[in-house]
Structures are given as structure tokens and as C-alpha cells.
Design brief:
By secondary structure, this protein is mainly beta. Helix content is 9%, strand content 37%. It has nine helices and 44 strands. Strand 12 and strand 13 form a beta hairpin. It is globular and about 85 Å long. It starts with 19 loop residues before the first strand and ends with a strand.
């Protein structure tokens, strides 16, 4: 596990398998060997290996260590590990120094294990080297059934493992709703389906089913109430595993997740979980004096998380406190932050040493009868300060921008908390500037060079001379190069909002990007698909069921001056993807727009759209950044950033 001067985490607590690379993306091998539907095949393979007298492992692609990290090979009698590349000779793998595969014949093994998928060609190449009478097996023994495979010709094609997990609950009047659209159809997919597995809190399978997606850009809604009724289930609190089959263009399952009470005061929204477990997460807020913060530890793997496999520490503090409980495979366990860090108080923030056991987790803030759910973010282990970023001003203007709403101040307070999000971030030289709807700057707060352990909140009202006169606005967190140049582009913050009358709160967090410039720097401005720059918008806006209204706050951030006005279409679609109505709005460059579904579309249009309708926010002229939420008449509301496709 990567470490910083601020982290003291035992290396043996983290899994030694690559799950994601900032250069290569998600690791399909990891998903292939941990897929829940491969459990039976994996058990049979391990049993076969364990029964052999002596096993020689041929590891031409370097998968053996990763496989052993997530599947127990302790009972396997390994004779040696053999490799193909001369440059791999002498490496330690599974307790053995690697040997050339040309020495395989002398191993005296009675079973050769080829740690590769699509292994036929690799196996044929060494057929003459296999010891006489030895059996040969490969990771192809783990292959999923054909109905779960999108591209059978390349098993590790990322599209074969378009999967994700969702926190899923239906108990005590609290429900969950996963909402997305068949965006794969935009990329030519014809017959897409979701293979779904529901795990309870103990990691046991409650239900498995398959949902074929209608053709076109149809809505996809998975409601915990419907699932519970369909399968006659007891109350549950666990996770939903989602596998998209037959997709195209995107190997990530994106979704919005609403958690709500039909008769209670709680309402939350968050989004997809980042499908690849990470070593660290950060941005978990400490509780206020009248709050509890519960981190939901959702094991994403077919092996148990050992005691101490998950740990917490205050940001910038080397003292790390392990979670002493074991977490069963695919189980969901609540971790009360106060049980490990009893003195932690807002605005302090907490790092999670996750050891690659969990995808991006959820946390729940409990205050009186109200709860809200949000997520921390992946804390990068591979970043170093990039001095070139401070020199990009002549070409990229503001450079990296983290935009967030200032909700209508008469109704809501808005708050910002910068959150370090890389192990190498010793300090954050940053500033925050508030803007009115037209993009006029209202005020700036210079934080200086915030040390890693400093948690400094900013009430955004402080940036505005007369906040009550502002209809809405937005804030941009940017680097302040006068305070320091040791930056890396991975700038994050938590944004918290509170209804001034009801006290209901919501929060969200995200990271900075370069926006709306044709010049590029590395992978910025980020593109939904393909090469940068990404200079258009396609955002998904799920709609709440009556009587809830839907909120949307669109920001037009620009690192350099771009088109003066956006040309943004808000297209209302019914559940089949049929267009019902459309509105064109224009947002000034550098400004924002706050709008509500019930005010923008008529009652007749909303009725025609029906249940499970949604909106696509589309603009071919600029990249917008969006936030969405739901609002009730009793002051409860939710807010999170939107996803694009």
C-alpha cells in the first residue's frame, strides 16, 4: 500500500492487486476474479489445485499475485512459478523466485496452472514443456456463463465487466431507488440487460434476477420497494451488484441513488460508487456535537476483510485506528466514526485506509430524526506535485476549477470545506470566489497555504455583501499560486447545504477540472468518451415522484473566455425515452442557473411524461457542470452532482 508521511498503514493489510490505473483505467482482471457469479467456479478451481500433489504456476501475464490476493491458495502445494519474459526472471511471486518457463519440464508437477484467461494459445505454446502426465488448467475455469458476456472473443474486454455496486436499503420506512438510463444505446448497443444480485447485511444472496432494457434511451429504475415485493423479502440493508450485459461505449454503470422515507423527514441522493476499490478514501466529515457519522463498510470482494483491514485517522494525523471487526464477503457493516475517533469534531475530516476491499463507500450523518447519505472520494496514491500547472495561466487562464452551487440564500445556507485528496498533498494553496448568476465576481476568500491537517470551513454568505439579495450563484475553488505552487490538479472540497427554516441538510463533494478551452493539458478538459477536450454537455437528471419536486443547478465554468451564452436544451423524456417537451435556456459564461422541474415544465407536460420520466441536459457548445436534488414541501431536500454520458 502506498504511504505518505501522514499515513502509517501496514503493507500487509492491503490487497496486492491492481484495481485501477489512472493511465489504463479499470482493471478487468480484478473484476473477472472477484465477480460474485464466479464464486462456484472459483471454489471448484481452488479445490482442484489443492488436491494436486504438486502445482507449477505459469504466470506469463503477471496475474498470479493478484489472483492469490483474492482467492485462498494456502492449501495449494506450489512447486514453482514460471514466467515467459526474461525481464521477469528472479522476481518473488507467491513465495517463489520466478524461473523461465523453459524449466517447467523439470518441475515434476502433476498440475500446471496457467494464470491467464483466453489461455488456449499460451497453453499450446508450452505443451512440449509440460511434465509427462501433468494436467493443465487455467483461469478460463472461472469464466462466467455466456449470457453474462458481451464480447466472447476477448474475455477481459472492459465491456464484459461493466459492473458496479449500490448501497441498497428497504427497512423501517426507509427505501432506496437506483435510477439511470440506457445510455449504452447511444453508442450502438441493441440488446442490453442488467444482471442483478442483492446481498443482505451478512453478504448472503437475497435475490438474483435479470432485467432486459427496452431499446433506445429508456429509463432504468430499480426501486427497493418493488424488489422487496417481487421476491417476498424481509427488511434488508445491504448492497446491489449491477452487471450491464450487451453494452457499448461505456464500461461503467452510472446511476443516481435516492434514499428516502415515505412518511419521515429524511431524503438523500448520491451517485455511482466508482467500481474499483481503492487503497484510500478521504473527505469523510467528522460529526458535529449533535450528530453521528456512520461509515457503511461494504465489502466488495469474495473474501473477508480481516480485523484491522479498514482503519481511520484524522486528516494529517499519523495515528491510525483500525476497525477491529471482520467483515464477511459482500457484507455491509456500519462503522460509527465515534467508536474509533471519539474526539473527532466537525470541521475535522477523516481518511479511510480501505486496503482495496471496498468500492467508494457511503456515509450517513444522523442528526435527530433526520439522516443524510453522501460519499467520500478516492484519495490518490500516484500523484506528485506538478510545477507546470502554475505556469499554465497564459494558456489555460483560471486552469483547474471546482464549481459548486450557492443555493438561493434566502432559503439555504451554503458551506465549503476543502479536502486533501492525495497522499502527497502536504498543503493546499487555494482561494474561493463567489459569482452571481451572470458570472460577475462577488467576493474572494484566500485561504493561503492550508496545511494538510487544517480543516477550515467557509460559509459562502461571507463572500457576498448582501446574500439575501442574491437569487442564486456559484462558487469556484481554484489554486492561489501566490500562496504556493505545489499543486497536482486533484483539488477537492465538500459542500454542505442547510435549509434555514427546517434544518434539513445535504452535502456533496467533487474534484476540479479544466473547463471550456480548446487547449489541452494531459487529459483536461475531460471528455465523456474519447480524447480531450470535452466541450459539450450531456447530463442525466432523474426526476422525483410526486409530490417531490426536482432541483437542478447548472454552472457554466470557463477556464478561459468561451461562448458568451450557453445553448442548453432541457429535454423531458418519458420512461421509454420518447421526447415529451423541451426548453432552451441560456447561461452566461462564468455564470449559473438554478431551476425547478415543476416551474419549468407545465402540469400537462409532467403528466404526459408520467412516472420514471427523466431529463437530459444537452449542450453542444460548452461543458456545463450540474448538481441535482429533490425537494419536499416540508423543507427536506437532497443534493449531489450529476453524471454525464
Amino acid at each position: 500500500m502506498a504511504q505518505s508521511p501522514f499515513q502509517q498503514v501496514p503493507d500487509d493489510m492491503a490487497l496486492k492487486i491492481e484495481t485501477f490505473s489512472s493511465l489504463k483505467g479499470g482493471n478487468s482482471f480484478f473484476k473477472a476474479v472477484t465477480h460474485p457469479e464466479a464464486a462456484t467456479q472459483a471454489a471448484a478451481l481452488i479445490r482442484r489445485l489443492s488436491e494436486a500433489r504438486s502445482v507449477a504456476i505459469y504466470d506469463p501475464l503477471g496475474f498470479a499475485t493478484g489472483f492469490a490476493a483474492v482467492r485462498d491458495l494456502s492449501a495449494v502445494r506450489i512447486a514453482g512459478v514460471y514466467v515467459q519474459a526474461v525481464t521477469d526472471l528472479g522476481q518473488e511471486r507467491l513465495g517463489h523466485a520466478t524461473k523461465p518457463v523453459t524449466a517447467l519440464a523439470g518441475s515434476a508437477a502433476d498440475l500446471v496452472f496457467v494464470t491467464a484467461f483466453d489461455a488456449e494459445r499460451l497453453t499450446q505454446q508450452i505443451a512440449h514443456l509440460v511434465p509427462a502426465g501433468a494436467e493443465v488448467v487455467s483461469l478460463d475455469e472461472l469464466r462466467l456463463e455466456q449470457s453474462l458476456i458481451t464480447n466472447p472473443r476477448n474475455y477481459l474486454d472492459p465491456l464484459n465487466f461493466a459492473t458496479n455496486f449500490a448501497f441498497f436499503r428497504d427497512r423501517d420506512g426507509s427505501h432506496s431507488r437506483v435510477v439511470t438510463a440506457n445510455y449504452w444505446s447511444n453508442y450502438g448497443a441493441k440488446e442490453t440487460a442488467l444482471a442483478l444480485t442483492l446481498f443482505d447485511a451478512d453478504g448472503q444472496v437475497l435475490a438474483r434476477w435479470r432485467e432486459a432494457l427496452p431499446p433506445g434511451q429508456s429509463a432504468v429504475v430499480i426501486d427497493s420497494r418493488r424488489v422487496r415485493a417481487r421476491f417476498g423479502l424481509p427488511a434488508f440493508e445491504g448492497q446491489l451488484f449491477i452487471h450491464a450485459v450487451g453494452g457499448a461505449g461505456h464500461d461503467v454503470v452510472k446511476y443516481a441513488l435516492d434514499t428516502f422515507e415515505e412518511d419521515g423527514p429524511s431524503l438523500s441522493c448520491t451517485h455511482d460508487a466508482n467500481a474499483w476499490p481503492a487503497d484510500f478514501y478521504a473527505g469523510l466529515p467528522a460529526p458535529r456535537a449533535d450528530e453521528r457519522v456512520v461509515l457503511w463498510v461494504q465489502n466488495s470482494l469474495p473474501i473477508a476483510i480481516p480485523p484491522g483491514g479498514i482503519a481511520l485517522n484524522l486528516m494529517g494525523d499519523a495515528h491510525i485506528v483500525p476497525f477491529p471487526e471482520e467483515v464477511a464477503p459482500f457484507a455491509t457493516v456500519p462503522l460509527d466514526v465515534a467508536s474509533l475517533l471519539p474526539e473527532a469534531r466537525w470541521p475535522q475530516q477523516i481518511e479511510i485506509a480501505a486496503g482495496k476491499y471496498v468500492v467508494r463507500p457511503r456515509y450517513e450523518v444522523i442528526r435527530g430524526p433526520r439522516t443524510r447519505i453522501a460519499h467520500p472520494n478516492v484519495e490518490r496514491t500516484d500523484l506528485k506535485p506538478d510545477p507546470k500547472i502554475a505556469e499554465l495561466g497564459p494558456w489555460l487562464g483560471k486552469g483547474f476549477i471546482l464549481p459548486a452551487p450557492i443555493l438561493p440564500p434566502a432559503q439555504w445556507s451554503s458551506l465549503l470545506l476543502p479536502t486533501p485528496m492525495a497522499l502527497s498533498q502536504a498543503a493546499l494553496p487555494i482561494q474561493a470566489t463567489a459569482y452571481d448568476p451572470a458570472g460577475r465576481a462577488l467576493g474572494t476568500k484566500r485561504f493561503g497555504r492550508l496545511a494538510r491537517r487544517e480543516s477550515v470551513e467557509l460559509a459562502l454568505d461571507e463572500l457576498v455583501a448582501d446574500a439575501t439579495a442574491l437569487p442564486w450563484g456559484h462558487v469556484e475553488l481554484t489554486y492561489d499560486f501566490a500562496a504556493g505552487t505545489d499543486v497536482d490538479g486533484w483539488l477537492h472540497a465538500l459542500f454542505r447545504y442547510e435549509n434555514r427554516a427546517s434544518g434539513h441538510a445535504a452535502e456533496t463533494s467533487f474534484g476540479a477540472h479544466v473547463f471550456n478551452t480548446v487547449l489541452t493539458y494531459k487529459d483536461e478538459p475531460q471528455s465523456y468518451a474519447g480524447r480531450p477536450p470535452g466541450l459539450s454537455t450531456r447530463l442525466f437528471l432523474r426526476l422525483g415522484a410526486e409530490p417531490l419536486d426536482t432541483l437542478c443547478h447548472l454552472v457554466y465554468p470557463a477556464s478561459t473566455p468561451w461562448h458568451p451564452l450557453s445553448e442548453t436544451d432541457l429535454t423531458l423524456l418519458d420512461a421509454t425515452g420518447r421526447e415529451v417537451a423541451r426548453r432552451r435556456v441560456q447561461i452566461p459564461c462564468g455564470g449559473s442557473l438554478f431551476w425547478r422541474y415543476h416551474e419549468t415544465f407545465t402540469a400537462e407536460e409532467r403528466a404526459a411524461a408520467g412516472t420514471d420520466a427523466y431529463i437530459v441536459v444537452r449542450d453542444t457548445t460548452c461543458r456545463l457542470f450540474g448538481y441535482h436534488g429533490l425537494a419536499g414541501t416540508d423543507g427536506r431536500f437532497s443534493l449531489d452532482h450529476m453524471f454525464g454520458f
